[in-house]
Records
---
Amino acid sequence: MALTHIIELMGLSDLSFTPDGGSAVDIFGARKMSIEFDGVAKPAEGDDKTLAYNSAFKGAKVSFEAMAVDLEALSALTGQTIVDSGSTPNQTSTLSIKAAPAPFGVLKGTGVIIQGAGTLPAEVEFEIEVFTVIAGELKISGGFEEMWLISAGGYAVPNSSDVIVKITFKETAS
């Protein structure tokens, strides 16, 4: 039986960012991911009417949210380095976010599937090969009696094969 092409996603089980030239960094506590496609559109007009409507995908605005203040993830998303110093009981880990270009790399998310009958995928993977962090959309936020969150946004542009986002249903989880 063929793998179904329709599933119900119930969550986000994994999210990672691999900076260009670096190693994959898990974004701990990932809980939301959004992909909003961007494009251009223009009517083709003639004979005093609209004859056709031309539209093309150009990229995608991507955002995500995580439930933990994770220095490793922030380091990868800002392109900055964590400095560890001291010894127990006086250790410190410091991430100084300086004025610098925002990094780009690969963003991957894995969706949680509601199980049911039939040949269902074990997981769904969203892969964005050319993802650039939008510096002004990286936020660390929280408040009184609230969990602190990291949220970030970026932009996906087509890779060399014109792929913006690759969505893969996998029968076996990786």
---
Amino acid sequence: MALQRSLKALVVVLSVLIVGGVEQASAPSAPWTPAFRAANADAPVEGFPAYTTAQVRERTTVDMPDDFPGYQIHLMYVLPKDGADGQLDTNGAITNVVAATQRWFEGQTEGRRLRFDTYQGAPDITFFRMSRTEAEIKPHLIGILDQIELELLHAGFNHPHKIYAVVYGALARVANYGFCGLGNLPPKSLGAVASLYPLNCPSNPFSPDDSGGWELTLAHEIIHALGFVAECAPNYYTAHVKDDPRDLMYENQLKPASRGIRQEILDVGRDDYYGHTNPGCLDLAKSVFLDPVAPDAGPPPLWPILELPAHDCQVGETLRPRESKIPVVIEFVNTTARRMRIYKINEDGSRELTATLEPYRPEIAPWRVRARQETFATHVWQVTVAGGECVGFYVAGETTHRVVLR
């Protein structure tokens, strides 16, 4: 984040309160070199920062075929149902930010790069309109990150190997706090979203180089979504560091993003979150979201998160948990308009209610529609409508799972 960073930490913690295993990384892909050209882009919607250079691209509403396999960061331009369209996905604004972020990251890491999802050599940016209007979203802006994530999950944007970097094109201010971005923080949160809020920080420019502010916010929030800063870091402070204001992940609400990323340093002293020597502490240098992929690279904590398929209710009545010592996590997410109940099935076939999920409606706080359950592999769970109708049975596997009720 940039402006009001301390609020971001508070919001992330609030999201955590209510609201895996390691896989072999794929071979690194060939470096992507962005090609820019001047363009007479359409006039920006009032309130959006101006920019001067653009790479024009066609709009797409789906995740296009990937240029390379493995873990990657997928870009999205998200608007409320009635949100004004600033065309940031097609006029080059987001593409320029990605390119500037990559240039800075390469300079900080001796040539390594973030694995942004690309299609035919250019950043793959998906356009998405939410089902709710700005007025419907506004009552729970403190949970704007949850609201965006819930809409994406409902629409099927939950690839187990992708983080979603979202540019949200509407105002998301909470009281007088103008946070520029928010990010999920695994393992406390099972979300996979890093979000930017341009209208919250209108003084930050979209720039064709690294002199703007959004490459700073993009890098900052993506690093949060990858699990940093971990509590084991020696200079840890509320998911940030506290030792040097030049650090990209420094916690300081007065540090403006508008100064751009060129003055930022990735882990000053290399002692907290990148290339450190702290045994057992999460290290960004060993993340599968970086190219070239390190030999001992791994995903964020509790990843991958796989969507768990349902068993037919008739078959489910015969399912019983088996003895297991493999602890896992299942998150149940309700994106329907009906209240749902979550039951744990015991060895004798009896069941115990563990959570009630409220319907996904504008008046309901977004964290009340999801529940995280600590369980073991092979344990059985049932979901019913509040009235008792069976929705399905779910058997925990040996990794983190999510059940999205649609």
